[in-house]
Amino acid sequence: MSNKTVSVNNGLEFVRDGNRPLVQDIHIINGQTDLNQLIPFKYNGEEGAPWQRYLDSLHNTWHPEEISMQDDIQQYKGGALTEAEEHLLRWNISYLASADSLVANNFILGVYEHITAPEARQFYARQIFEEAMHTHSYQHIIESLGLDDNGNSMFNGYREITTIADKAEWNMSFTEALADKAVTPGTEDANRLLLYDLVAYIVFESIYFWCAFSHIFAMARGGKLVNTAEQYQYIMRDENQHYLHAVWVVNQIKKEYPKLWDSHMQQRARGIISEAVDLETAYAHDCLPDGGVLGLSVQTYIKYVQYIANTRCIQLGLKPLYKVSEDPLPWMDDMVYIRKEKNFFEKRVTEYRTGGALRWD
Ligand SMILES: [Fe+2]
Ligand SMILES: [Fe+2]
């Protein structure tokens, strides 16, 4: 039997010492257990627990190339989009094309080694696969519509368009801080950096992405880019699980380590969400320069950003930031929570051979 100290982050130390992991040693962070063993389960059996979310996510498997882009290709190449719609589409994909890689990097390089619950790591492994599918989906859209006829402008957009670079850089700063080799998992400083990062990526996956999806859904409601919207629906269903998992992790850390969620942390978490709303507001004026497109005015859009930000505050147990109580884009809620998708764009949802027919859980 070995007496050596167990590292909280790599799961290598238990090999050959013969100890079996005990449930009471497993914690969401700072756990002293063998991270290579999924059993004994600790975070299993309740709705929203990582193991349940992992199992649910397996039923949502889909593939971007199984969604036909034919109608959109005809429409786009036939010049059906107005100048404002074309601008919005390009600014939208310029943000999204590289965004899912930033999320994957954040979990692989930053978050993963701080999380000491094997079931939660299992979900992250699945999430990272899904982020790759999402990047694939944007590539499929870009190639189908021929948006990159001017070189690699879409994937490089997050470096070329200032308001997008500002958002990307802001998120990457959290990853960079957490992934710094000087940060030792399990320490108070590391735990605080982890919480900042998790909040910043809840913003990324469930405020920035929600807002970006609304651009395309608004156009699809008017009969344009319906195939692209369908791709986005599948992505959104996955993102819904990703951000709910992140909220679960933050709330679980609060439960297990209540001292970490002190007034300073709560203030900082609200500050992070508010910084994000400011960046999205600047981007809103840039992607909707003439006041918006049909069904999506710039003012409605900004109100929507604030409304979602308030919702995320509440989910994290924080005081809302803005005086917006009514959802300015209620149809977005339908997209996530109600099974209206089969006739939402008045088209049939493709039945997938992978068994991932669209279902919002
Ligand atoms: Fe994603
Ligand atoms: Fe995601």
Report on the architecture of this protein.
This protein is mostly helical. It has one domain: Ribonucleotide Reductase, subunit A, CATH 1.10.620.20. The chain is built from 12 helices and 2 strands; from the N terminus they run αααααααααββααα. It has helices at residues 50-58, 70-77, 83-111, 118-145, 157-160, 162-179, 188-221, 226-256, 263-287, 298-315, 330-337, 341-344, and strands spanning 292-293, 296-297. Strands 1-2 form a two-stranded antiparallel ribbon. Helix 1 runs parallel beside helix 4 (118-145), helix 3 packs antiparallel against helix 4 (118-145) and helix 7 runs antiparallel to helix 8 (226-256). The protein is globular, with a radius of gyration of 21 Å. The protein starts with 49 loop residues before the first helix and ends in a 17-residue tail after the last helix. Mean pLDDT is 89; it is low at 1-6, 338-343 and 346-357. Bound molecules: fe (ii) ion (2 copies). One fe (ii) ion (FE2) binds next to helix 8. Residues 103, 131, 205, 239, 242 line the site of one fe (ii) ion (FE2).
N-to-C order of helices and strands = HHHHHHHHHEEHHH
Give the amount of beta strand, in percent.
under 5%
CATH fold-level label: Ribonucleotide Reductase, subunit A
Summing up helix and strand content along with how strands pair, one would put the structural category as: mainly alpha
What does the main sheet amount to? 2 strands, antiparallel
CATH architectural group: Orthogonal Bundle
Q: Extract low-pLDDT stretches.
A: 1-6, 338-343, 346-357
Q: What is the helix content?
A: 55-70%
Count of discrete domains: 1
Helix count? 12
